[in-house]
Amino acid sequence: MAGDKYQTERQRMSTHTSIPKNIIRNLYVILLTGFLSQHAIAQFAPAAGQPGSTALRADSSCFINWASHCHVQRGLKQINLPDSGYASVGTAQSAIGQASTNGVVSLGDGGIATLTFNPPISDGNGFDFAIFENTFLDTFLELAFVEVSTDSQSWARFPNESLTQTNTQTAAFGYTQPTKIHNLAGKYRHPYGTPFDLNDLAMMSNIRTNEIRYVRIIDVVGSIDTLYAQRDSKNRIINDPWPTPFASSGFDLDAVGVIHQVATNTSRIYPNQGKRPLYFNTSSNSIHVATANTGENQQKNELNVYKDLNIYNMAGQLCFKTPIFDAQSSTHDIQIPTTLSAGTYIAQYKNYSIKIILTDNR
Hints:
The protein is mainly beta. Helices cover 11% and strands 29% of the residues.
């Protein structure tokens, strides 16, 4: 009888404490959806030197020209303190010419640098120019918006995103993860530049992407105070180191390097791609790689002169890898595998990086 009593009691408790299956199912769906949404947040290219990074070194042969003129409108050292004075490090001349040669110019909170290019920048295959800032750490990032213009009157801003949390202000020497930043200058440490692709602005009718004469760099005021906060293209507040009440306040511009430009005879053609070590051939859906024969390579064992061509997705995941013989001057056309789905990828070979966009019409 005691056994029957305990069995009856267990049944009674089970009846009163059980949860209907449909509620369990709904709770499971809610929890799963929440989990997936947490992991579905976009993550962008990682820090310089890491797999999938889009960072370009200042000494890369992909740069064929640099800004020829710069005008700077300084911002305050601290935008909420009118008597804080203006940023004062460097001059406009500091941003002219090749990176790492003339120092930097600090813009201050909301400061602006407008750079001129002659010949104009043009929309080539992949990235078209890169902006260099002087940050010394992968995670100490001072950011800036980037705009371009054909006539200096009408401007188009690159679509940008910041996924950095906005609950707590990033302190003056606080950390920002590059994987949470997209299309904002200052994403990479020196001597690496943040590259930009004019194709991102192809639908903008107020500029000619094959004739960009001006690039405007606008310091992001990193405050999360809604009185001063600035927002990305999706209306999210951008949180970066603030306040920085120093002479070097704000974005510290080093240089802007050109990858594609209008030919000097004014016809709109791109630089001789045959001399470029890496480019994407859209007509054959292949990556062209040029290797150079050096005395150093000649002395190496052949087993050690293979360098990998890697293709990463925008989350930094390796999608394709193939070795390339690098001991002699030659060219290689590497067919992109059809197994790669449509989307944006980064191809890397040694110190060179390009962006490739695959479509469904391959």
